[in-house]
Amino acid sequence: MDKWENNKAWFLVLPAFIIVAFSAIIPLMTVVNYSIQDIFGPGQSVYVGTEWFKEMLGNYRLHDALWRQFLFSGLVLLIELPLGILIALALPKRGWGVSACLVTLALPLVIPWNVIGTIWIIFTRPDIGLFGVTINSLGIAFDHTARPLDAWITTMLMEVWHWTPLVVLLAYAGLRAIPEAYFQAAKIDGASAWAIFFYIQLPKMRGVLTIAVLLRWMDSFLIYAEVFALTGGGPGNSTTFLSIYLVKLATMQFDLGPAAAFSLIYFVIVLLFCFAFYQALLNVGRGEKT
Amino acid sequence: MKIQKRTIALCIYFGLLILPIYWMLNMSLRTNADILANFALYPADLTFVNYIKIFTDPTWYMAYINAMIYVGMNTAMSLAFALPAAYAFSRYKFLGDGQMFFWLLTNRMAPPAVFLLPYLQLYATIKLMDTHIAVALAHCLFNVPLAIWILEGFMTGVPKEIDETAFIDGYSFPRFFVTIFIPLIRAGVGVTAFFCFMFSWVELLFARTLTITEAKPITATMTRTISATGLDWGLLAAAGVLTIVPGALVIWFVRNYLAKGFALGRV
What we know:
Structural class of chain A: mainly alpha
Shape of chain B: globular
Order of helices and strands of chain B: HHHHEHHHHHHHHHH
CATH superfamily of chain A: MetI-like
Number of domains of chain A: 1
CATH architecture of chain A: Orthogonal Bundle
Structural class of chain B: mainly alpha
CATH topology of the largest domain in chain B: MetI-like fold
Shape of chain A: globular
Number of strands of chain B: 1
Largest sheet of chain A: 2 strands, antiparallel
Strand content of chain B: under 5%
Oligomer: heterodimer
CATH superfamily of the largest domain in chain B: MetI-like
Radius of gyration of chain A: 23 Å
């Protein structure tokens, strides 16, 4: 659809711009301010230039948290995307089951994030949790509060449990939008289920799957409350992801300068991904129109 | 035969989806002593003490009311600001529109942890600390961009000829927008309201940072209780179950538009 050219449209965007800018630009400037000063107390600060940035870039804890974060977000995409597509393909297409399935699927998405963590503590604890007790009674030692690998497995299980429904809902929306004629044509041609999937369903889901990748990558990159409630970043630092490390640095140790420098580095990484995904989304949109 | 396998797999998946929630419900209906002493798949001595405690203790039930207040405020604000902006993005080409849209998007994707410290200072300076409006404003950071994104998707689906016809018929822009355009995309508005509700309801970091006592929401109350009372599992589970209820009710109303909403109106 061709759009009208009119710069007065800015007046419609302005209120939204102001309210977001209030919450985004002023605080970001404060972060920049913190990141180049050493703050001793109210009104007492010394300009230190790029020292905090140098310190944080060489900080091995930050490196660890960053690689952990990439591993986590990568695994999230690898597991949730295929699983989500599979489930979406298996969902009923009509009848009373559709509403029931959709409502159940959306249920984990409206649970507060720290309650998600609480649910999984209660579910996996070796003394009171169904999962923990079952696994331990099978003779496998499992304790997510003491063993890093178990903590990782629990965190991944929680994440997959929490967000796979989002991928399912997106993929399902994409599948439902395919006109029935495509499938009739495929049937006449005698196409196999695999051929239908690879030549009709997957290409037609490209748009929604791009959104799914974007949302899952970005949101898992910012994960905080679920993991904070479940493991608190432990045992040791084994599940300390970027946000958890940042909050620890900022509110518990109160290192304003380094925390601010870290924030900006974090923000730039997120911005780069955001830009790449945004371009991908725009290209998908163009592809559909031509 | 193939259909049956598919149904069984689906049943297993939904079973696993429900199981952790069922386990919390099970815990919430037992006393803490019972939970620690016996391992039971279902509550043998059904008890509602945990729920009674929450509904009679103001620090608990006020926490739910606080959360509802700021979530409601945030949803109303996000819609009010996002509707005109989304219309502009879906209908007009203007200087810097692409850049503006991208900038808004970056705020949806920005890590809340980055904004934590400045928010403390900013809201203390403008004397809004520990108020509902502070949390509602802070949540606008990610909800306004999201609302614009979804609404723009729905609005682009409405043919532009409708606008042109209305303007030729002599409708002023505000009258056209409120009486013709918004009713046309009411499903989109409903879904957007649901998403604003959802993301404001589930958020912890801002809500916890910007409140002390007066506006403290249930999510923050729950994290503080963990350290304070030496873990009353039954009470914690009951509080958790009650946080699911509002969300579950709201899902039911938008169930037919859920999938389209998650696809940001772009299917």
